[in-house]
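#onboarding

Welcome to the new folks! Below is a worked example of what a typical request in this channel looks like: someone posts a single protein sequence, and someone else replies with the predicted structure as tokens. Don't worry about understanding the tokens yet, we'll cover that in week two.

Example request:
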Amino acid sequence: MKTVKLESDLVGSGLQGENHQNAQLAEFRNSIAQSGRQEFEENRCSTALSNGQSASSVLEQGQSPVDDTGISSASTICPAPLCRQFWKAGNYDDGLGSKVTFQNGKNYLHVHPMFLHSNATSHKWAFGAIAELLDNAIDEIQNGASFVIVDKTLNPRDGSPALLIQDNGGGMDPEAMRRCMSFGFSDKKNKSAIGQYGNGFKTSTMRLGADVIVFSRHLHERALTQSIGLLSYTFLSRTGHDRIVVPMVDYEFNSAKGKLEFSQRRGKEHFMSNLSMLLQWSPYSTEAELLKQFDDIGSRGTKVIIYNLWLNDDGIVELDFDTDPEDIRIGGDIKKVDTIPAWRTVNEQHIANRLHYSLRAYLSILYLRTPETFQIILRGRLVENHNLANDLKFQEFILYRPQSGGCVEGQVITTIGFLKEAPHVCVHGFNVYHKNRLILPFWPVVSYADSRGRGVVGVLEANFIEPTHNKQDFERTSLFQKLEGRLKEMTWEYWDYHCGLIGYHVRKKYPAPGPKQDSSLIMANGKTKPVKFSQSSPAVGSARAWSATGLPTKRKPSNDVMELESVKRRGQSGANPIVSGMSSEAQPATTANQSRYQEAANLIQENKKLQAQCLEYEKRNEELNTKVTQLKKELEEVKRDYGQLMTEVTSLDLIKEENDVHM
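Example response:
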């Protein structure tokens, strides 16, 4: 088999900038298009394989029952799965009985193709599956990723829509690609990494479509590799496989020859067999078309294309690419809100409703924070990050320290308040994040009656509990149950003391100061002074009191706390309203009191500005530290490359001197 010429400077082009890399890659791709197909056609007859000898399995390195007689696909139509509706596609009949494979005297358990479907049913929601794939791109930020693209593409075989997800992270070398296609393997050791089970890629891709093809380019220490892998439920079901077989081909750059060649790790026969299956069952019928998919990847990165997308119950593609050219929607999932006509529009357009059918809305709140250097691009337009805490008015910040076995398991600060649209919206609940990733959006911990709790929303990041495998819920541990109980108490208490701010009758008024039990610090009248709360109070900047058992107790704030609560409400509303149903004791009675309130309000506003600046500085510092780490890594690579080049120059000088002597 002939090799395809690749400029040797390509491998070291990471030292010369992205533009130079792209120019060299373009030159390589042109050579592929001109010569790749012709060279393989010349070898077609000589590389035909006998029946049953393909050795194509990645998950199972056994023999395949497929008859691979060449490396091109004669079919112009890529077969679709037998059933195009996901929830009905699990009826798999391989026509074969269960088998036990013996190798070297040991028996091995095969993973049956039916497991691909049953495993994917953990994702009830298509957007949850897409989010799983975006998590992989977010985890690649530490490897230099600066964007992830989510878009529509077309299957060139039949023109059907397909889903594209592409990032410019570190990419995967051949072994990493095999681990990605395997089950239960995860090499993410970073504690901040979102993925941890090694199962997300399989469950998410198979939930969205019957087939997925992955292209990945990896560049590390002057070693360039390109890998292509196919996970196809269609292929497995139509050929009657009784185990999961994943066709995959690898290319490596030969620095000695300055050429890109097929990988010699598993031999030429293995490569040709896998290539033949890729060309038959993927959307691309020639090797040149396969390699062309690397055109826009750059020096490194990964492209995932999910095709044969599942249909809904009406026989329409589940993902709607047509309604909004800048969005991906779930067709027919727009929910009508049962409320009075005057409030219907504001409820239906609220993000709590739109996130269920608009991917752009969901992705805008999917991550609590994203670095300024990273972008999520959906259908060609940037997804703007939406901080749900900014949608709240009359905010309070509550510190909660969960305990287990007498030990504190962690701490979480919950931002709670009314939605700015309250009381016109029928929305309530908590948005619970885990390691920066949204797990439960608008989780309704209470079912309100008589509007109690209406419009109360909270935001928190709970890293002390673990999400389920599909990252759409949490494991039902005792810590989770304690958190649920605490959030219920927060909701009821916040509503009972603040509902007057949005026009409802106040259920509870601030009681007179009670016995002093435990100290905390709070700003009042421009000074920091101790204020007494009950012993296990988790509140920060509020007059909350909780019993040690987790049950709510009556508030016992001092007069200063009552004044501060009043000032907070004024500062956030921008006015001095007399709220219906509030105690007249909470309103300023004298000019002196008004002056004190104004002074405290000014201090609170200044404190907010300083806090915002501090957060911005911390965020910027984190980004700079990440950049410094990346530059150090690049500098080390440059030093290694420089050392190698100097060694080569010295060797060439010696050779030149020897030649001069002999001449």
